[in-house]
Amino acid sequence: MDEGTKRMEEGLNSPLNDEGDNKDGLKKQVTIRSSKGGSTVERDKDTMAKPVAVDELEEQPLVKKKTKRVATLDAFRGLTIVLMILVDDAGEAYPRIDHSPWNGCTLADFVMPFFLFIVGVAIALALKRIPKIRNAVKKIILRTMKLLFWGVILQGGYSHAPNDLEYGVNMKFIRWFGILQRIALVYCVVALIETFTTKLKPTTLGSGYLSIFTAYKWQWLGGFVAFLIYMITTFTLYVPDWSFVDRFNGDEPKRYTVICGMRGHLGPACNAVGHVDRQACTLSSPGDGTLREDAPSWCRAPFEPEGLLSSISAILSGTIGIHYGHVLIHFKGHSERLKQWVSMGFVLLIIAIILHFTDAIPINKQLYSFSYVCFTAGAAGIVFSGFYILIDVWGLRTPFLFLEWIGMNAMLVFVMAAEGIFAAFVNGWYYEDPRNSLVHWIEKHVFVNVWHSERVGTILYVIFAEITFWSVVAGVLHKLGIYWKL
């Protein structure tokens, strides 16, 4: 899909792309009146340098061709949503695909960085033409606020979907972090850097493999600053002893003290990432590390899964993603794009493997370590390149259409399926007991009992009753032109 022949829309369904493409695509036109029937034909001013016959002008198409989406972008986003549904709903039955307890990387650990990677790619395409920086900034801030709002609603404790039919949250215990909140932070930072450096964007690249990196040095500088903040804080911040009250095991509350008093530790209990997150849970003197007795439950864990310091490190995932988007914009040939993408993907994988197996910086999702960023971003780059070869180079779109459909309505499927809102709605209609609902009946009688296996029945339920079902729904909505845009 060469740049000269196909216009590329951004993958976030952003209004920025619509406005930018429309305004930048306008050309000055001249009106020529034909003597045949008094018809009027419009022609670009640039083409008037030589005389043109009226008959030829009348044959020119007057309607601009509709722009085409990047199929790989939608398919990759759809794959990420599918992975999230799979690991969230089948992870208990198959622990090997669920999140790694600490060091290491499982299938579930790829979901978040894949999200951030594709957000970065989409930002590059969305903001490749910015007519007015002020309007772009307003839209970026508005989208960030929308992501934060939905994140708090879905993962802050207000929603108890899909099995608990209650709703509401005590604001004293609300969880401010989550998946969409992290995406919002990364999106806001990366998109603002891209916007404010728009006048520095090159129209053509110099020679050499590294020209694409030097052309967008400000984006890389932003990622490097995030890297420095994370690394300096992680390895220099002093982590004191901290304690918490366990009110969940037994009738009598018990206080436990975690002995730390160290710096640069990457274990589960005394790392700087967890210490930073626990500051919202402490008493008036955060330095002593003592948690409030009524602190939210996540405060008793060694870390917050989508905490502040690890989210700063996650900006790197978005930075690498936007680099892949820049390559897509500037390089026209398939081989040139793939050379850039694949080589960078393998370099990132090699760096991660060396850091992990030398025990310098283990691959760790909870800490969002630098090796984890490199490993998952490298894997995302390789998978993205593979999709590009299959879908955009070889034209094998049919096998991946269900991923494209989901990717084009990613927010809808995320909320309804991955966060269980639709299942909770169905569960709300039950007979005598909440367990006697259509969702539970299908899972038990159509899948588990037929295969006489909880594990097999669970995985088949997820594949057919969730992934396949929402693929069909997303396909129908695509045919109707219905999309949930933020």
Structural summary, described in words:
- By secondary structure, the chain is mainly alpha-helical.
- The protein has two domains: 119 residues, no CATH class; 298 residues, no CATH class.
- The protein is built from 17 helices and ten strands.
- A two-stranded parallel sheet has the order 1-4.
- Helix 4 packs parallel to helix 6 and helix 6 crosses helix 10.
- The radius of gyration is 26 Å and the shape is globular.
- The N terminus is likely disordered.
Strand content: 5-15%
User: How would you describe the oligomerization state of the chains in this entry?
Assistant: single chain
Instruction: Identify low-pLDDT runs.
Output: 1-67, 284-288
**Largest sheet: number of strands, sense, barrel closure:** 2 strands, parallel
Number of domains: 2
| Structural class computed from helices and strand pairing | mainly alpha
Radius of gyration: 26 Å
Determine the fraction of residues in helical runs and give it as a percent range.
Answer: 40-55%
For the biggest β-sheet, the strand order reads 1-4
Number of strands: 10
Number of helical regions:
17
Overall 3D geometry? globular
Order of helices and strands: EHEEHEHHHHHHEEEEHHHHHHHEEHH
Distance between the termini: 27 Å
Mean pLDDT reading? 82
